[in-house]
From TrEMBL:
Residues 31-155 form the Alpha-carbonic anhydrase domain. Coiled coil: none annotated. The keyword Zinc applies. This is carbonic anhydrase. One of its GO terms (molecular function) is carbonate dehydratase activity. Keywords: Lyase, Metal-binding, Signal, Zinc. Pfam families: Carb_anhydrase (PF00194). The keyword Membrane does not apply. One of its GO terms (cellular component) is plasma membrane.
Amino acid sequence: MTLRNYIFFVSLCVYMEQQSVVLATVLVTNDAWSYSGENGPDTWHHHYPLCQDTNASLQSPIDIDTDQVKYSTHCEPFRFDGYNRIWNNIMLMTNNGRSVRINIVGNMTLSRGGLDGTYRASHIHLHWGSENSRGSEHTINGKAYPLEASRRFTA
């Protein structure tokens, strides 16, 4: 299995207190994973050393408990560059069996926000469900949402 260093930037947009809020989780990940078989949850700690804990509380899917979220005043805001340009290129959209994946062309980057460098956008994948009460891989306060968009970045 080839390990590729990605920044896995999960965005869950929810409507809270009259405003749209974007919550993010930054993790290191690779391409080969699944919820079963040889790349299932029992093997994730081999591929994701940061997730080596005895009760698997640091592994995906993640429930974001907003009462436990801590805001850091030391991190500057994330900086997104290149997202306001229209790219006259064809972007490849595929169904990989778990989600729809859109490969990103162009020079879209993410930096600051506590990151140690600038990362280039690689692709976006979407998860959705058959009902509004499920579809997102991750949850907020135990609640699933109809859609989740995950963006992946490379160093």
